[in-house]
Specification:
single chain; about 350 residues; eight-stranded mixed β-sheet; three-stranded antiparallel β-sheet
């Protein structure tokens, strides 16, 4: 492990020298790549230097302890510190998802439960918007299909960082664990008997693709236009401005009806299509990405749940990690960090275990 770190330290120093050269910044794309790699290596470099310093502290304390036993406590403290740094370094060396710093398109779809499920989909949307606001991300509503009571049959939103994110703190790095079926247990607004019902909504998260990342051939697309509609089937406008795009080779479909013009709806639908095609390509190319994708929602069925929101007990439970807390009201107001961190920690532990086996 430590031989690999020494090589990374050399690379880090080389990157620092290159980034200090003004001529490197003439090519902005290359400069961004170098800066991104430099940012990835900086935490490893810092922790490794601290680890090395802890080793020197241990040796110094042992020498002093040979003459004065009171320094034995300092030896133990330094050894404990080095053990902590060793574990931290192991985690930092776990291969990272190359999409971690990407922005995402997050889609929420109502499932079983009818109108109550659509209302819950609206609650999830608000939760994610509030979470994005708390961490300083930008959000953009791409498309939505509202229900009669003010919920959402389906809704798509882009979530973006402002500037560059710290390694492991990008939008995809945090929100990729949200993909799956979310189950709610509560008394619906439509329930007159006060009985607790269970319904579900599906969340799909895909990294947003740049145009250069996904090649789309115009002849591979079928583009249909239709009239936008709102709650109750009421016409939103009187022209065929809504757009549905089908990628014929894969059968992947993306649609948008929120914008007023057909051209704007086409552009937004293409954004969604690109992100879905990128995710599909990553599935095929990388087994790990495929495994992660399979954990996301296929059909909005309560049996495939990843998380339960229990209103009567004010409880949030993540079924993948075993995380449980009784602050559901705060979570729904965007306080999602602890829930997401439980997923990050479990994922890192699994990757570390796999790396150690190899």
């Amino acid at each position: 492990m430590f031989e690999a770190v020494e090589e990374l330290l050399v690379e880090h120093a080389d990157l620092e020298t290159r980034l200090a050269d003004p001529s490197v910044h003439a090519d902005q794309n290359n400069a961004r790549k170098l800066a991104k790699r430099y940012a990835e290596l900086t935490p490893i470099t810092r922790v490794y230097r601290q680890w090395r310093q802890a080793g020197e502290d241990i040796e110094a304390a042992r020498e002093l302890a040979a003459e004065d036993p009171e320094f034995l406590a300092e030896v133990k403290d330094s050894e404990a510190r080095r053990d902590e740094l060793t574990e931290e370094l192991r985690l930092l060396l776990v291969p990272r998802d190359p999409s971690d710093d990407k922005d995402v398109i997050l889609e929420i779809k109502a499932g079983e439960g009818g109108e109550e499920s659509a209302l819950f989909a609206g609650d999830l949307l608000r939760m994610y918007l509030r979470f994005a606001e708390r961490v300083g991300w930008k959000t953009e509503l791409i498309d939505s299909n509202e229900s009669d009571l003010g919920g959402y049959k389906d809704v798509s939103v882009a979530v973006k960082t402002k500037g560059s994110a710290e390694p492991g703190q990008g939008v995809w790095a945090r929100l990729k664990y949200e993909g799956g079926v979310h189950r709610v247990q509560r008394v619906p607004a439509t329930e007159s008997q006060g009985r607790i019902h269970t319904s579900a909504a599906g969340v799909l998260v895909t990294p947003e693709a740049e145009e250069v990342e996904v090649e789309i051939v115009a002849n591979d697309l079928r583009i249909d236009v239709y009239r936008s509609s709102g709650p109750g089937g009421q016409s939103v406008n009187t022209t065929d401005s809504a757009v549905r795009i089908t990628h014929l080779p894969t059968g992947i479909v993306a649609s948008c009806q929120n914008e007023k013009s057909q051209l704007q709806n086409k552009e937004q639908a293409m954004r969604i299509l690109r992100s879905r095609l990128l995710a599909a390509a990553q599935e095929e190319a990388e087994r790990e990405a495929s495994d992660a994708r399979r954990s996301q929602v296929r059909t909005v069925d309560r049996s495939e749940r990843i998380r339960t929101y229990n209103y009567p007990e004010n409880r949030i439970s993540d079924h993948r990690t075993g995380f449980k807390a009784y602050n559901l009201d705060q979570v729904l107001d965007g306080d999602l960090n602890a829930v997401i961190q439980s997923c990050v920690d479990k994922d890192a532990a699994a990757k570390l275990a796999a790396a150690q086996e190899n």
